[in-house]
Amino acid sequence: MIQAAIFDMDGLLIDSEPMWQLAEKHVFTAVGVNVTDELAAQTAAMTTREVTQFWYRHCPWSGQSLDQVETAVVDHVESLIRKYGKPMIGVTDILDFFQRRQIKIGLATNSPARLMPIILNKLGIGHYFDAISSAEDEHKGKPDPAVYLSTAIKLNVDPAHCLAFEDSVSGIVAAKKAHIKTVAIPAELEFSQTKFDISHLKLHRLSDFTEQHLQQLISNWR
Questions:
Q1: Which helix (H) or strand (E) holds 109?
Q2: Where in the chain is the domain with CATH 1.10.150.240?
Q3: Could you report the per-residue pLDDT of 106-149, keeping only the tens digit for each?
Q4: Distance CA 137, CA 153 (A)
Q5: Which of 192, 190, 122, 168 is nearest to 182 (CA)?
Q6: Which class is 4-15+86-219 in CATH?
Q7: Across-strand partners of 4?
Q8: Known catalytic residue: 10?
């Protein structure tokens, strides 16, 4: 039985991935890092702290601490979100879907905690959420399951009775490690990639999720 739905944030609820890319390139280039697309692709599912450490290992800089550079990235992203942040297709549809069925709703993100209320308020969806968690407050980010387990605890729901919505393989792995069933919503260019086959269900957009999918997942629940 599904008692809670837990959502990732960046790339799933808000189209913020390009903003992170812009902010990281701007800030890391400013401290002397040669930010290549090939290396940047390796950081896509990392926390901001992990991304900062990644680039420092590849090209150590001086003059600013890792904390200062990390803060500069988040500041830049926050500015872009406040100006340009838009919801992904189907966000309110899926949140309404679960709210109407009295299924609790949670958020589990690798993004810094300070961005959660900013994004939820920008999208006008904060009132839907019963619990929110950032991997910034955990010992590790996704693919470690900690942020999902914390969200389930806040919701007072056994992880085995939760359903996770994710746009990344890293997030899917994190949810599955927490014994949570998953729905993958990959970026369109990645939809056909077999790496998402580890998810229990794969859809093009959030609004594609229907009562039939819900019942299908419930019937296969173990």
A1: strand 104-109
A2: 17-84
A3: 999 999 999 999 999 999 999 999 999 999 999 999 999 999 99
A4: 14
A5: 168
A6: alpha beta
A7: 104, 162
A8: yes
What's the confidence (pLDDT) of residue 1?
A: 86
Rounded alpha-carbon distances, angstroms, from residue 150 to 7, 11, 91, 95, 141: 13, 21, 23, 20, 12
* 63-91 per-residue burial string, b: 16 or more CB within 10 A, e: under 16: eeeeeebbbbbbebbbebbeeebebbebb
Tell me which of 10, 15, 67, 130 is the catalytic residue: 10
Tokens of 118: 């900013």
At the topology level, CATH places domain 17-84 in: DNA polymerase; domain 1 (1.10.150)
Say how far apart CA 59 and CA 27 lie, in whole Å: 13
From CA 72, how far away is CA 70, in angstroms rounded?
5
Tokens coding 18:
């390009």
Q: How many CA atoms lie within 13 A of 110 on its CB side?
A: 29
pLDDT tops 70 at residue 222: no
Domain with CATH 3.40.50.1000 in the chain: 4-15+86-219
